[in-house]
Please model this.
Amino acid sequence: MKMLTYNIEERGNKKLYEYLYLCMKHDILDGKIRNGEKLPSKRTLARNLGVSVITVENAYAQLLLEGYIISEEKKGYYVNYEDTFGGKRRKKQFQTKYTEHEYFVDFCANKTPYEFFPYSIWAKLMREVLTEREIELLKTVPFHGMEGLRITIAEHLYETRGMTVSPDCIIIGAGIEYLYGRLLQLFGKHAV
Model:
């Protein structure tokens, strides 16, 4: 493990952690820090550079996020970037812990049988909606959903179920968690 040294005064108007991250990234890309090489601990590097541990931690976090380094629990940080194919650099491939299974029938939400999905019709309708309602789509959506959709749902409920429901009584949300939050606001925090 080599000790890294960087001139902090040269950072210009960049944040300190950003400058440190960029220096380390360039050293990895230039091969000054090799693949598999152990990096100094956060405390050691912070002490050597005269910066806070949080600065080094933020720089390491950005390198981790972009795949230049990996963290091994209780061992430290290691470079995870190889020089392959005549100077072209490629990120190391990771194996995921979880794999997608193919089922004959999948009753989970958001599972579309792609081979039967009418993409051409969907694309045509999307273009029409975007063309007709360009300004309306840029406006902020009311907290209880778009009025046109609420009216259409109210009409559908009347035609198919015989229910007379005001569009103002219909609330459209972006998921069950959001709607649970709305219900809590509506009934109050002490409702069970």
Notes: Strands lie at 69-72, 76-79, 81-83, 89-91.
